[in-house]
Write a structure and sequence with these properties.
The structure is a single chain. The chain has 2 helices and 13 strands. By secondary structure, the protein is α+β, with helices and mostly antiparallel strands. It has a domain of 129 residues: Lipocalin. The strands form 3 sheets. It has a 9-stranded antiparallel beta sheet, with helices on one face.
Length: 189
Amino acid sequence: MTMKKIICMLAMALLVIGAAQAQEQVRKMVVRQNDGQEMRFKTADIEEVTFETVAVPTTVEEAEAMLVGYWKMSVNPQDFEYPVDIEGVYLVITEDLKEYLVLKFAESVTFEEYVEYAGKYVAESYPGDVIVNSEDPTTGEMFGWFFNNLDQNSFDVHLEDETSITIYRVEPFEYIMPSDGLMKNSFLK
């Protein structure tokens, strides 16, 4: 074999070895929390890393203002006991702190009594007040549920059966209030 062939063979072998090693290496971002827990993410899967400061209320007035808006509950809509399919469960809190539980009815509703609500957000007004804890404005009570961890984007709720759910702020949507009180007997399973 000539020297030229040997050099070409060695160069090809090095390229194959280099390619094999490059395929085996996966770059990851490691996030270590202050409790020692680590989470790993493939850097190829990360589009963007940002840091944000989340506002939390320091007074009752700030908490009440923060609660005003549209919120989505992190519950499985099928866990909401209702005679038709539900696609989402929401809360709406008005500026005068009125509370509405809102169900997003599925487009496929065929049950005669509910057909007019197919694909719509249907609300039920609840009596009572939002009560913010004056000692810790990130906590309080609404709908008879206790909430905590209130910030501008979310809060947690603890239901009577000890279920915990997170509620996330969403964009405003149009909802209707049925005059016949359709939702008075609905509740979470």
